[in-house]
Design brief:
Blueprint lengths: L4 H14 L2 H16 L5 H18 L6 H34 L10 H12 L6 H12 L8 H14 L4
Helix pairs in contact: 1-3, 2-3, 4-5, 4-6
């Protein structure tokens, strides 16, 4: 007879009382790899899968409350506006230079946009919007983004297409 979900949750809680969370995750994943995924015994397979799922649920951070979302969404949106505005400015200036048009007034801030772009990608300077977002994320027990474009563009593309780091 397979283990119940309640029993799997109790096993995980007991493991967390005696082991650091990283070790609990490692043990559950190795049990699944070495025992659960290769066994012909459906009861053992179901038990290992329940245990693995119980560990994933126990390790998942609680959902971000509405207030947290109301704080983080404007920061992320304003961050995207800065990035897209800089890209549009670069395209406008380069397009005007290539086709001989007058450079639009709004894109005369190209040196400033370049400075901002450098600051956004520099490892020596942290973007203030990233700092604000990371502070909110840490408050709600989430991993900090560290790098905005890597977090919201590069990593999702890697995950989607299975590209290793």
């Amino acid at each position: 007879m397979p283990t119940t979900q309640q029993e799997a949750d109790t096993i995980v809680r007991t493991m967390l009382e005696h082991l650091p969370p990283e070790q609990v995750v490692a043990v559950a994943s190795k049990l699944w790899e070495r025992v659960g995924s290769g066994t012909a015994n459906q009861s053992v397979r179901d038990t290992m899968l329940m245990l693995k799922d119980a560990v994933e649920r126990a390790m998942a951070p609680p959902p971000i409350p509405l207030l947290g979302k109301m704080l983080i969404v404007p920061v992320v949106l304003s961050h995207w506006c800065v990035i897209l505005g800089n890209c549009a400015s670069c395209i406008a200036v380069l397009g005007a230079m290539v086709w001989g048009y007058t450079v639009p007034t709004w894109s005369l801030a190209f040196p400033i946009a370049t400075l901002i772009l450098w600051m956004m990608t520099s490892r020596n300077w942290d973007c203030p919007l990233t700092k604000i977002e990371d502070r909110i994320r840490r408050h709600y027990k989430r991993k900090p983004t560290v790098a905005f474009l890597r977090h919201y563009v590069v990593n999702p593309i890697r995950d989607r297409f299975g590209i290793s780091k």
